[in-house]
Fold these 3 entries.
Entry 1:
Amino acid sequence: MRSPRRHPLLVPALLCAFAVLAARPTDSADTTDAVGSDGGGVHGAAGAGVSAQVARLYEDAAVATRQYEQGRTEAEAQRAQALKAEALLDRERREIAVLHEDLGRVARAQYRSGGGLPLTAQIILAGSTDELMRGQHVFSQTQLAVNNSIDKSRRAEARLAADEAKAAAAWRELEKRNTELADLKRDIETKLDQARWQLQGQADASVAAGACRGAVRLDQPPSAVTNAWVAPVETYQLSSGFGSGGARWANRHTGQDFAVPIGTPVRAVGTGRVVKVSCGGAFGIEIVVEHAGGYYTQYAHLAAVTVDQGDRVVPGQWIGQSGTTGNSTGPHLHFEVRVTPELGSGVDPVLWLSARGVALG
């Protein structure tokens, strides 16, 4: 199969694809925010800079991933369009080849019928002046058609060669940008992984000491939440469910686990007030929020909290960062819905959220 780059329509399409890739996420080399109380970045307990760095890198990684995937999608779309155009070109080439063959047959027939004879011989052999003129006219028209076809083919091949060179350069640039985005994505993810475990180390130290570091006041992202209730994390995989058995629990599992990496922003599922922030025991670092109607939600095994006891929260607000503190076998968020602030009064979180328009899956 011919290269899908060989078509003039591909050049402007590729240039459009570059515009999609023009924006790049902020360089993550300077992502650690200073600890202060001037309203910029974060303020509060020592070590807050790591929480801010994780949050920043988390967002940068998401942006880099979206741009990389969008770039690859655009490249595949252009490839499919080019293959379709190449198929049309092949058909046109075959039609031109048939036309050339037909013109060749006409020219050969004309030559055999006298078109190839010298003009003097044609005059001698012609039965009449009209016959001579008709023969000359047919021969001239055939010759003109052949010459025009040859010129047209030469011009088309010249344009095709020029467009092919442009398309090849465009493809190289596109692949270069995608490679750069892939490298940037890997670099951010490496830094994010390192920062996550640094954050987890600080959280483990707090749990071991039984003293919480205090709220890390991260800048909240622009909220796009319009619903009264949301899932506690934005991207996740459901793992251990409510009521499931296991060696890690004395009886049955009291909540729903969300498998997420360390440092994932944890969100308040609805409007409420923080009634508990603690960092000891089986749940590690945990937050409990009271909601209207006598319900409470718990967010456990965190690596950091961004709220203090008594704070009011709204749906989608970042209240912490996930981790693996306490009785945890790996990074995840343990989420409970209770009818009291204490353990032992839980209801199925999946059904509870579903009744409020939040489908987990």
Entry 2:
Amino acid sequence: MSDPWSPARRLERLTELLATWRPLWHPLPFQYPRLPWSAEWSAMAEALLSLSDAEAERLQETPFIDSPLADWLPVAELEALTRLPRLSGEGEPLPERWAAHMGGRKWRQVQAFLPRVCLRQEESPLEWCAGKGHLARTLARHHGVEVAALEWDATLCSSGAALAEAQDAPVVLARQDVMAPGVERWLAPGSHACALHACGDLHRRLLERVVDAGCAVTLAPCCYQRTADAWYRPLSRLAADGMARFRLELSRDDLSMAVQETVTAPRHDRRHRQRAGAWRLGFDRLQREVRGVDDYLPVPSLAYGRMPATFEAFCRWAAARKGITLPGGIDWAGHEAWGQRRQRDVTRLELVRHLFRRPLEVWLGLDRLVFLEEAGYDAELGTFCERELTPRNLLIRGRRGGPP
């Protein structure tokens, strides 16, 4: 069955829906004791809060399937608008021995990504933001051609060059800040630029330079919120016009929503996240009482394994970081229990945001796709792997004057 949604039409409709429903998906439930929309949408809030633990967990993973939000929100249309094809790939399976020195998940992503790089015989491949050049080495070995790889970190360049030499892979790892002037010298009409999970401004820069050079591109974008801009600047004219018409504004925090879906973590990691979330909510209640200010106060994140052993210790750490003097006689058990109850509610209320998470990510991908089309490219947007391997599974590929 053919897709009834052209990229332009899909982009325009998603712009309208994201703008229309922004008052519901924009507020972060953990910041508000009572969400700004909870009075007007009280029946929807009650339906979410009544969900069982199992149902709430299922809807986090599959927000479009049998969603109770369908009584209030356009669930079916959002699901249709985010449904993308799996882009075709070429070639035989890659030898498993090539996985040496790559993490298992990284290797499986390279296995899925590389066959979808439709490299022509006359094109010179280039990896953008290469790290140690895992993709570049695999491209070089698979096609038997020299591959340039750009990376700004000198240590990663050195490690990548040593790996390429050890594996007899013809890769030139060049130390290059892709945001700096002069990066365009690496791109020419005969280049084919590739990037597997280049973040934010880095992949935005790639698309701008690709269009300037007129070369081919295969890109899996990631981390749209890693940008110097406080507010999103669309790449395509169509997205800019739509944002102005529907008055859609996207902050850096809004962009982070698009990449918050994660692959199911081990049970102990999930327990750790749940405990950390409950402690943060318990501290939030405590800091409001102590300061006498009923506002959310951001607390820095702690890496896994660095969380204090007890709720009290966590609160004292957080208070010290925010310059708060805690009084004596605090009911630590009461605040911790409140945080646990509050986390249960927050988990359910966040399902509204989860419903718009993939639509926002697809909208961002479409903005990039249409940007290429406006520059005269034949381009396509789809996926290159299952979300269980990586939720950041969007793939954009384009070529000026021919099929991507």
Entry 3:
Amino acid sequence: MKRSLYESDHDAFRESFRKFVEQEIVPHDDRWAKDGIVPRELFATAGKSGFLGIDVPEEYGGGGVRDFRFNAVITEELMRSGAAAAGLGLTLHNDICMPYFLAYCSEEQKRRWLPGIVSGELITAIAMTEPGIGSDLASMSTTARREGDHYVVNGAKTFITNGINSDLVITAVKTDPSQKHKGISLLVIERGMEGFERGRNLDKLGQHAQDTAELSFTDVRVPVANLLGEEGKGFTQLVTNLPQERLSIAVAGVSASRAALGWTLDYVKERKAFGSPIGSFQNSRFVLAELDTEIDIAEHYVDDCIRALNAGELTAVDASKAKYWCTELQGRVVDKCLQLHGGYGYMNEYPIAKAYADARITRIYGGTSEIMKEVIGRGLGL
């Protein structure tokens, strides 16, 4: 079924970004995967090329276009390239962190931070997860004690994407430890603040080109001017932005599935066994027919979610459905596609091997599949 989501402007943008990926990311992907991090210059190059801050008003240097379809194009092309991990920091910067700066910054904060975020000179991250608490944000122990014109922050965060490269870290803290959800606030902690330290770049199963780090805060004095929005409103702010975050992950999941299917179709048409292309065997046809059908159906649901987000109508339940289904689909697709590659699928020189390792985390970050089912179940009144 033909997709109707995109228009000519998106097609032109796709062509431009595809060239950027082919020239600036793909040739370096293996080295960055070994390094465990992309160079900061990638963000600056992306910013200079107009691929950051598309929805930021022009007065702050952005594109001035509030249309998530452009974000989706970026994700689709990164997945298509087989170098998804190298681009994960860009999509986090655009899709997940940017909404906080746009929605909750004061005018002074916007002028201070947005131009650098758009140019790629200021790399962003968001720090919610702490060691030992998983999805239970209300139990976080990172505190921010008010002292005059500063908050004094103590605690630790873990599994933070862009954790090494980041300059601005949106950090969930407890400004009132006596409260649970109502005691959470968001502070922007900046590179170079005394007492803010980065731990090791975590050694992961997949997503090797993406820096993921532990962060620690020891008596970090953060100006009150770095508070995002109102004190005590942090949990509400996080919940408000989660639908876009989860939709972004869903777009990546279904796009990664589409890419894996494409690589596998090419492979089974060329690879022969018993004198015939392995794609000609009934089992191969049936497996690929199932996957193509599931991907098509998921793709159209996600397209409708993107339309709903653009219209300001995407619900937490619908975003959770998209995130849950598309990441589970991604896991099924890459597993079955690797199987059709046979032994070669286990070799890292084939993109399906990397896609297999990269896919496993998507059912965990941004809210586990179990949390997504909980959100969906509550939406049923259960």
